[in-house]
Amino acid sequence: MKCTSAVNRFIRIFSALSSSPITLRELDQLDLERIKGIGPKTKPAIEEFGIHSVLDLLETYPRRYIDRTNMSTLRDLQLGVEAMVMVKVLSCQSIRTRNGRAMVTATVGDSTGKLSLTFFNQAWRERQLTQGLEVAVFGKAEMYNGYRQMTNPIVDPVGNQTGRIVPIYPQSGKSSISSERLAKWIQDALVKCGPRGIDDPVPSSILKARNLIDRGEAMRSIHVPETTEMHQAARRRLAFDEVLRVQLMLVGKKAQWERDSAGFAHETTGHLIDGFMKALPFPLTGAQTRTIAEIYKNLASPQPMHRLLQGDVGAGKTLVAVATMLAAVQGGHQAALMAPTEVLADQHAIGIRALLDSLRLSDEGNLFGDRQLRIELLTNKVKGAVRKAILAGIADGSVDIAIGTHALIQDKVSFKSLGVVVVDEQHRFGVEQRSRLRDKAQESEHGLVPDVLVMTATPIPRTAAMTVYGDLDVSILDELPPGRTPIVTARVSDEKERSAMWADVRSRLAVGQQAYVVCPLIEESEKLEVASAEETFEELSHGELADYRVGLLHGRMSSLEKEEVMGAFRRGEIKALVATTVIEVGVDVPNSTSMIILDAGRFGIAQLHQLRGRVGRGALESHCYLVTQDNEPSPRVEALVASTDGFVLAEEDLNLRGEGTIMGRRQKGQSDLTLASLQRDLDLIMWAREDALSMIEADPMLKNLPTLRDELDLLFNEEEEEFLFKS
Ligand code: ADP
Ligand code: MG
Question: Ligand 1 centroid to 324 CA: how many Å?
Fold first, then answer.
């Protein structure tokens, strides 16, 4: 694993005696007890806080800063307006309310007046707010019993810290680690680093070009900034370090992967592909042509492809995926398509079978010299003898295309010769799953790495694409097939609007168009979701849509039942289809012009966008109604009303949800972007990517930047490191 052998450690400790600047590695090895005020008793409490070394301590950044010059006095405090005041605690007491809740009240004051603070269910405040303590209080004052009072304000103990700008560290009420104590320890650590200084392993040419300050200065200024500008400069420098490390890891991983793995050199012309292209009822869009060319270039080369295909709903990704898989099949290999849910896998199987129905694969062992492609669906629902037969077919190579869920990467599945893998990441798989599918292929006959295409229908903000998918090449399908009419989206939130909506829908059904009604999403239970769909179905077929034939589609129906309902809907026999989110993908009925989403506030932006993409597929004008509770604020629904552009919505989603959800599991390790932000730091992330690309190109193993390379080893976890610079 890590090459921290005894010898290395000895060398490091020895070098610590020298006067070269201190590296992060050394800081990581420095015991917390070296810090003034930390002893054997305090150490466990700090460790519980997640701080195990002096490096951890220095990387505990302030949550916010209090600028003393920027405070209101109590005299100027206005009722009902949020304000921050710097005050002293005069008294504090705790009582229990009649219903047993803890209530802490404190009186605070400055030279101009007094204020009372009330806290509910925060019994620990009594211990925190000791008499005489200086605190910054942020909140809204109201009159209560003739006194000005703030209820549950934000309180930051400033203690006896001096300086204009006071850092406030994250702290938990339960632990004894106060912001003030953290500040003292961190300042001591900074003082102790002083004589040798903190090493800066980033080449100065980069720092100069990017106008970034020195790391040591940044470390000091992030903790004790003298001015707001200093703090900004410090944050940018340290954030750059975070994103640069991520990019070096991703770019290095990609370069290493390309160097070390042997893949297939697929034939990208030939009877199968040509036959498929010729049989298409429409010309490819420009974006499809471009994307397929990008992919085929990868496929033809013996270096394995690792590519992300981003394309909005309806952009025509399925076709690109099929064209990719056919290259493998044509050469006598297999292809796999992995979808995140059974329903999506099902839908893909139906769609892809239909697309490939007429294609023949030459087969000498067959009387007619050719045969149909064998496409099989493998999910956890497929059981018994059928499953056995499919597994056998995958193993002996007679299955050409396997479509499935993560069932495809289970141990029992082994491919004879897996040449292409398409991963439909609708809702995002982890990196681990992606690489497991790749590993599977290496177990097969040739031990060659298959070409991998990752598809996402959820456009990703540029910063996230560069960060989460930074180890992939990217193709973008940014052009919809012709003949689509923009969808008109409206929010429907009261009774009047609701009945107007149904009247509108009826008027369109009356002229032969069709409608979808999507039922409330109930994530906790498919059973409840199905029940609610059944209820909606009953209501509509006897109420608003009583004059039309209404169908019901949900995930608990057998595939046969589903196919029947979908068939009737496609043929136009069913006019309105009440469904759970199973229609999210794969359904394509251009005659459908209304999409009604009930309880739309429960869905995420990406999902709403997906659902809306089920209409607007033909030349007729389509409408999407997002039904919400009366007056319930719903920024996601508003976003959908405002835009139909998936990339715009993706940025909005990032703003609303924050980055945690986008980064997912990959960023949970030590490599967390603590200071860098996918929302704010597009420029830093782009610079870091450029710089990482040129650094790795010039020096793939970072031999000439050993300290920086060592930092990557230090800061990334094993899973990430597994790929990293292993020769
Ligand atoms: P996505 O998977 O990107 O959401 P699909 O692959 O389902 O989109 O394609 C959406 C619809 O557009 C399908 O009905 C498909 O047949 C059709 N389509 C795809 N490519 C073209 C094209 N070049 N011209 C016209 N229609 C197309
Ligand atoms: Mg290849």
Answer: 15
Taking only the tens place, the pLDDT of each residue in 445-496 is 667 888 999 898 777 777 777 777 777 788 888 888 887 778 999 999 888 9
Of the listed ligands, the closest to the CA of 267 is 2
- Cβ atoms < 10 Å from Cβ of 112: 13
- Per DSSP, the residues of 574-636 read S-EEEE-GGGGSS---TTEEEEEETTGGGS-HHHHHHHHTTS--SSS-EEEEEE--TT---HH
Is-contact 674 56, C-beta < 8 A?
A: no
Q: Which element (helix H / strand E) includes 57?
A: helix 54-58
Q: How far apart are CA 375 and CA 354, in angstroms?
A: 11
Residue 315 Cβ < 6 Å to ligand 1: yes
Domains and CATH numbers, the chain: 19-63+182-196 (no CATH), 64-168 (2.40.50.140), 271-477 (3.40.50.300), 487-643 (3.40.50.300)
Ligand 1, residue 312: give the atom nearest the CA: 3
Pocket residue to mutate for ligand 1, from 284, 288, 319, 622, most atoms within 8 A of Cβ = 319
Distance in angstroms (rounded) separating the CA atoms of residues 300 and 265: 5
Determine the distance separating the centroid of ligand 1 and the alpha carbon of 407, expressed in angstroms. Answer: 27
φ/ψ of 599, rounded to 5, equals 50, 50
This prediction has a pTM of 0.70
* Rounded Cα–Cα distance for residues 715 and 242 (Å): 10
